[in-house]
Design goal:
Number of strands: 16
Radius of gyration: 20 Å
CATH superfamily of the largest domain: Medium-chain alcohol dehydrogenases, catalytic domain
Shape: globular
CATH class of the largest domain: Alpha Beta
Strand content: 25-35%
Distance between the termini: 16 Å
Order of helices and strands: EEEEEEEEHHEHEHEHEHEHEHHEHE
Length: about 325
Amino acid sequence: MRAYFLLAQAGRTGLERRDVALPEPGPGQMLVRVRAAGLNRGELITAPAAGKPAGMDAAGEVVKTGTGVAQFKPGDRVMGRCPGAFAEFGVMDERETLPVPAKLSWEEAAAVPIAFLVVYDMLVAQGRLKAAEWLLVTGVTSGVGVVALQVAKALGAKVIGTSGSAQKLERLKPLGLDLALATRAADFSAQVLQATGGKGADLCVNNVGGTVFAECLRSLGFEGRLAVVGYLDGTLKAELDLDALHARRLTVFGVSNKLRNAEQRAATVRGFAASLLPMLADGRIRPLIDRVYGFDELPAAKERMEANAHVGKIVIAVEK
């Protein structure tokens, strides 16, 4: 079958298409015919010289099940984590797989697993965002940023978002963005405090990285929470104001699956299925697709993401 691999090339990650054997599902796993796969920035950061299968999540049809699979059967429409998703077939773990709601197309379903599970983790499981609270999202026009906006509005929260592009921010106003701040600099805390009546944000999602970390802390109110999820600026270190952390009883937490085991990831899937999947099923939330590329166009899709030209999710249609 056709499959893409990521590999290190002249100091950056490159793509290589290879012909590989059809994978075989093990116990608790399913072989899935991939119809569409989502492009995620995190996997583009590093890759070994020998290459690794490209792609992290997908949507498709179950072809074959391994021993012990009880929830799904051949022919079922599914979406979930799928290592090596940029291929004609992939393997999914039943514990990290979800049924595709009838309202969603293959492309919309492929936009769900990684981005929505990350947002569930940071807004619901760890962030404890409530109705009428204020959420601040730096880099709100990114894939995770847009989902954070959509989920927060569905939960009844108010959202402030930053982006370096005023044009991109305009595209998010129909989704309910309450305050758009066109900036890439660490200069937004005064506007956040003004918008919240001097109280500050209840929860902040930092997609940008270390250059705005201190400004995110300055934007938080009493018992505010800061989720660190991305590094668009490539800056991995920042100063921490211990006095502010202490006096305002702030919480800083990371959002990553790198060190989590399969059962910990599965717990997030179950929580998402109970709280947010119904919102996708009944249409309260609809994934925002920036652009759909064909399988042979994956290199162009990667270039669009690396150029930060997208708003929402970039998706690869493996089979239409």
